[in-house]
Amino acid sequence: MILVVDDDDPVRVMLARLLRTQGYAVVQAANAEQARGSLDPRRPDLVISDIVMPGESGIELRRAIAQRWPELPVILISGYSAEGPAEFAARTPNTTFVQKPFAADQFLALVEQTLATSFARSPLELQG
């Protein structure tokens, strides 16, 4: 399951639709608070979050996720300056930064690669 977090409804819906066309189960959240509510019942396989949102930012959400599930991969997206977020992602394990706008096929390839890498590192996969 992939959790998509973005306060921009059209962007969030478009990302969810794009991912569903590839067979992914998707849950949507309009902000970090909603995302946290979605994280509690079931840990997703991947979180895709906008960075600039009202209230808690995507970077703050990433930090909270890392405290609870350090291995959970997160793709941070933003249409604003990439320098700070890109540096944050480079320093934070299992975190990738993508600048908006992006090509759908390249984004889907990144999602596929991120999930494949995550599952390859998963202790459950190594045991089974």
Fraction in beta strands:
15-25%
CATH architecture: 3-Layer(aba) Sandwich
In CATH, what is the homologous superfamily? Answer: Response regulator
Based on DSSP secondary structure assignment, what is the total number of beta strands?
A: 5
Helix/strand-derived class? Answer: alpha/beta
Instruction: Tell me the overall shape.
Output: globular
Alpha-carbon distance between the two ends: 20 Å
Whole-number mean pLDDT: 88
Report strand order across the widest sheet: 2-1-3-4-5
Task: Name the CATH class.
Answer: Alpha Beta
Number of domains: 1
Overall description:
The chain has helices at 9-21, 32-39, 58-68, 83-91, 104-121, 123-127, and strands at residues 2-5, 26-29, 46-50, 74-78, 95-99. The protein has 128 residues and is α/β, with parallel strands linked by helices. The protein has a single domain (2-127), classed as 3-Layer(aba) Sandwich (Rossmann fold). A five-stranded parallel beta sheet has the order 2-1-3-4-5, with helices on both faces. Helix 3 (58-68) links the parallel strand 3 (46-50) and strand 4 (74-78). It is globular, with a radius of gyration of 14 Å.
SSE layout and pairing:
Blueprint: E1 2-5, H1 9-21, E2 26-29, H2 32-39, E3 46-50, H3 58-68, E4 74-78, H4 83-91, E5 95-99, H5 104-121, H6 123-127
Parallel strand pairs: 1-2, 1-3, 3-4, 4-5
